[in-house]
Amino acid sequence: MGAAMPRRKSLRSQFYRAARDLGNVEAIEHGGVEGGAKRYARRAVYRKTNAVTGSFLRALGLSGTRRKR
Q1: Is the confidence at residue 1, as pLDDT, over 80?
Q2: What pLDDT sits at residue 5?
Q3: 10 and 17 in contact (C-beta within 8 Å)?
Q4: Segment 14-52, tens digit of pLDDT
Q5: Cα torsion through 41, 47, 49, 51, rounded to 10
Q6: What is the DSSP annotation of the chain?
Q7: Burial class, 35, CB count within 10 angstroms (exposed 0-12 / middle 13-18 / buried 19+)
Q8: What is the CB-side half-sphere exposure of residue 17 using CA atoms within 13 A?
Q9: Burial grade of 24 (CB within 10 A; 0-12, 13-18, 19 or more)
Q10: C-alpha–C-alpha distance, residues 37 and 51, integer Å
Q11: What pLDDT is attached to residue 7?
Q12: What sign for the dihedral angle of Cα 57, 62, 68, 69?
């Protein structure tokens, strides 16, 4: 059997990743390593709270289903 091909990333996801990386670099430039760490921690909190909020709304039927990949 052949090896699995890696998924091709969309142009949009590549732009989002580049913007995120640029934001990380700017945070370190302006706030030093602490600024980068604060940004990383803040994004982790947003990711977690958005996931919890989304699952709660889906459980209540107030949000659409997740997009299919």
Answers
A1: no
A2: 66
A3: no
A4: 999 999 999 999 999 998 889 889 999 999 999 999 999
A5: -160
A6: -PPPPPPPPPHHHHHHHHHHHHHHHHHHHHHHHHHHHHHHHHHHHHHHHHHHHHHHHHHHT-SPPPPP-
A7: middle
A8: 6
A9: middle
A10: 21
A11: 74
A12: negative
Report whether 59 contacts 66 (CB < 8 A): no
- Cα(24)–Cα(44) distance, rounded to whole angstroms? 13
Among 45, 41, 19, 18, CA closest to 31: 41
Tokens at 55, concatenated: 């699952």
Domain boundaries, the chain: 18-60
- Cα angle vertex 45, ends 42, 51, to 5°? 140
